[in-house]
Every structure is written in structure tokens, then in C-alpha cells.
Amino acid sequence: MRNLFAFSMMLLIVLSFTGCSLEDTENFRFVAFPIESVELPESFELNETYEIKVKYLRGSDCAFFEGFDIVKEETTVRNVAAIGSMLSDSDDCKEVLEEVETSFNFIVLYQDTYLFKFYTGEDAEGEPLYLEIEVPVNAY
After folding, report:
1. pTM value?
2. Which of 45, 56, 72, 91 has the fewest C-beta atoms under 10 angstroms from its C-beta?
3. What digits encode the pLDDT tens for the residues 13-67?
4. What is the Cα 13 distance to its own chain's centre?
């Protein structure tokens, strides 16, 4: 009886693992959208929050905005990219070249001038290109 119970449990465990199959492939990939233009104030005030408006180029109806990747390169240098997901298993994607506006909030934490480097695409050699904008912080 004990052997039958052990055999039944082993069979149940084996069947439960073989009955489930999780796909290892994803149906999307992340892409960086080229930023076309940015609205920034002429200067910042320390400890204030600012809405930074960004227009990016959505190139396909299979691409969807996910958010911003903001990387702190140095104390007051920020690399900014608009990130999207692109469906990779769809054969009927159409080129749209749609300019989309969105925004993110930025809190000024340092007194030094900020340098924003917004990703605008790549050059002929595949090197990233940036729109660089400096914004001074008003001193008290």
C-alpha cells in the first residue's frame, strides 16, 4: 500500500510538471523613441518640482510608450530617453511617424547648473545623438 501511495505521488508530481509549459520567448522588445523637442524652464529653483514636457517620435503602430529612462551620469547631468515596447511577433505593423507629447516630473536637488542630454536617435555609424540643454539653478 505504501509503495502504491509513493508511486501515485511520484506520478502526480511528474504529470504536474509536464502538463505546464511556460513560453520562454517574449512577444516584445524595448526600444528608445527619438525625442523631437523638449520644454524646459529657463532656470530652476532649488527643491522645486518641474513638469518637463517631451515630444517623441512613435514610428510604428506596434510601438507603445512605457516611460522614461533617466540616468544620472554625474551630479547634475541627466541622460533622458523615451522608452517604448515594440511587438515582435506581429507581421502587420504599419509605419505611423506620429509625434507624441508626454511629460515627467523633475525635482531640483542641487545648486549647480543641470545638463540634460535627451536621446534623439543614432548617426550613420550607430552612435547615439543627444539634444543637450543646460538649465541654471537660481542662487538665493
Report:
1. 0.77
2. 91
3. 555 555 444 555 668 889 999 999 999 999 999 999 999 999 999 988 889 999 9
4. 40
Which helix (H) or strand (E) element contains residue 11? helix 2-19
Integer CA distances (angstroms), 132 to 38, 46, 118, in order: 10, 21, 6
Q: What is the spatial distance between Cα 34 and Cα 24, in angstroms, rounded to a whole number?
A: 30
Cell for 80?
A: 533622458
Per the CB < 8 A criterion, the answer to whether 103 and 27 are in contact is no
- Give the HSE-up count for residue 76: Cα atoms under 13 Å, Cβ half-sphere: 15
Cell numbers for 88: 515582435
- Location of C-alpha cell 513638469: 51
| HSE-up (13 A, CA, CB side) for residue 94 | 2
Beta strands in 12-76 (DSSP E): 28-33, 35-39, 44-45, 49-60, 63-74
Query: Is 119 exposed, middle or buried, given 0-12, 13-18 or 19+ CB atoms closer than 10 A?
Result: buried
Give the sign of the dihedral formed by CA 67, CA 110, CA 72, CA 118: positive
First vs last Cα of the chain: how many Å apart?
Answer: 85
